[in-house]
């Protein structure tokens, strides 16, 4: 579909479009035209990704001055999905712009094979069959270098995704490593500058990476042709040329029109400098699935230190001291050169990239004076800095011992108070502490350390004191929380010191200041009005969209009591009640015996799920449950959970049916979709509040109340309901899909809870769906499944799909204006009448 949207020609790769997709793209365009930020909530399963990509790529094509599209996702599977959709959008645009050139891959699908957007069924009455563009090997849109003379998208677009070495490396030995840290270390040991220099001086003396060597040798010729490159294509391209895809991608950032990567590349100050210097202020930044973006911002600037980390840091300092002594004896000139560089300042030394212009993204860890001034004299020499860090580590050990001792306990201090005690106890000055992180980075580079993982604990401590010194003045946006025991294992003590960021706007504020358009979007942003307060920005567009439907494909049910009429809830005072435990178990058994295929159940925490499963096993509930479905359980181990998910899907595919027991805020609740028969129902037991006795949470709630006037209960309700919405939203992924959303807790009947659910869920929730017993809910379930089990009414489906003609009529009429004699303005009669009618 190629249509006009308020003066912008949009290339949308499907024959028809939903009303909410058109509304969503109009909001996006208004935001881009205004050069402002926006908050948009769109129902899950209605093609949000393809709308974003279609509108923004069309906007870039129509406005060459528009910058890069920076698309931020949470996980690698989401990144790959975005690249697939992008390839489809650009391939369609290339065909529309250059119809004389054949499409790379073009397969006509019958109407029975077409899914909802990511796929809608084509209009059967249409004379022209709908075409879907897929890759030859997997049935998806073409990726990799474009074979078209005009390039990808018909205009030479280059789209790249960035990820870690673990996901991009093609060196056989490095790929054999087990975890991310080992992969990074193996790569650095072959690509570090000093390794390359030693190898050039004495060939064969050091193992180097052939792919990196070839990439360096190619120099300026290492350009990438136009195309859409996901991680697989980047690896294929790298192997075909003999170039390292990891470093090739980072060099190609300058030339790319579209970049897709993880949130951390924009929000974590330590990672952001890898890409931020390449991005212009006119770039368009998108945070997709951004319902938890405030939590991501806080985690990026929070540091936790424990006894084990301090002991590792002590050993690391011992190794550093030995290395410094060895280097003084063998190559003192190198240490002297580092000293001179530090006198000149961090920017001159090259540790911190100088901003390309005044609007460049600055690091949140470092004050401007840290960037521009020379490193303080008392930590310039390597041996002095090592001694400086020893004092810091010993002071932190002393504080931890005092917390864990007999007179200790939980303590909370402001950064200024903690820093005051540190400077008094160690005789250290505040200013050198700001440089600790960068000074450590300089020393590790000077000592030519490849295996940085051995220094992770020391790096955390340097990060801790740099943040502490930087943000000690003014309003306390951090809190120091010292706890004698953070371990969940009974009898095990694990004292910790946490530098907890309380203000989520700190990490994202530089982005709002630098970039003209930052788009925050998700299917579950409700209540949407709290995000501007939490992130401290003013959106020019803030909208929550409803879902257009041809049948009630969602049935939200609020179960407040069991079959014995006893109220069910996970309130702390009720959760241990055997009546509640028994009713929850009986509820799950009855629902699983009624609902076919897959059922997913979410619990409020791992501990509550484990206690319930233990009780259910004791009273025979699990035995009854396994008669109707196989039972799979999410654990904290990623490998175990992945295996359980795979077997769960196999059980659903073979018709046996399964129930997956998982946890709100866990891995399954965030990135896994249970579409079609994999999720005919989602049950959430309780309201997933955060642990309200957490001292870090208490400090944040007090900060929000004091500075942003966000009441404690308002934030807790907001946070719990967005998690609940995210859980139940897993069940519906398209208009032809259907599912039950079952909220099992009496508190969901309260208006302050229920009203915070997204608009697209509330539109299906009437009074008959609220305050149900288990028996009443089962009757609703049977009625819903009977209705949804009927064949899809294709005519009804077409009624919610807009044609090009209908979309064109939705555009406001623009008057045709021309100049008459003497410069008089002449307006088209039809448009004049229309304007008069609308003004009336």
Automatic annotation (TrEMBL):
A Gene Ontology BP annotation from the UniProt entry: transcription by RNA polymerase II
Chain ranges of the Helicase ATP-binding domain: 7-339
Subcellular location: Nucleus
Keyword line: 4Fe-4S, ATP-binding, DNA damage, DNA repair, DNA-binding, Helicase, Hydrolase, Iron, Iron-sulfur, Isomerase, Metal-binding, Nucleotide-binding, Nucleus
Segments of this protein annotated with the region Disordered: 104-153
Superkingdom, taxonomy of origin: Eukaryota
Pfam family of the protein (one): HBB
Known EC number: 5.6.2.3
Cofactor(s) recorded in Swiss-Prot or TrEMBL: [4Fe-4S] cluster
InterPro entries given in the database record: ATP-dep_Helicase_C (IPR006555), DinG/Rad3-like (IPR045028), DNA/RNA_helicase_DEAH_CS (IPR002464), HBB (IPR010643), Helic_SF1/SF2_ATP-bd_DinG/Rad3 (IPR014013), Helicase-like_DEXD_c2 (IPR006554), Helicase_ATP-bd (IPR014001), P-loop_NTPase (IPR027417)
Reactions catalysed: ATP + H2O = ADP + phosphate + H(+)
Alphabetized SMART domains for the sequence: DEXDc (SM00487), DEXDc2 (SM00488), HELICc2 (SM00491)
Gene3D superfamilies cross-referenced by the UniProt entry: P-loop containing nucleotide triphosphate hydrolases
GO molecular function list: 4 iron, 4 sulfur cluster binding; 5'-3' DNA helicase activity; ATP binding; ATP hydrolysis activity; damaged DNA binding; metal ion binding
A single cellular component GO annotation: nucleus
PANTHER family hit by this protein: DNA REPAIR DEAD HELICASE RAD3/XP-D SUBFAMILY MEMBER, GENERAL TRANSCRIPTION AND DNA REPAIR FACTOR IIH HELICASE SUBUNIT XPD
Recorded family membership: Belongs to the helicase family. RAD3/XPD subfamily.
Protein name (Swiss-Prot/TrEMBL): DNA 5'-3' helicase
Organism for this UniProt entry: Fistulifera solaris
Source organism phylogeny: Eukaryota, Sar, Stramenopiles, Ochrophyta, Bacillariophyta
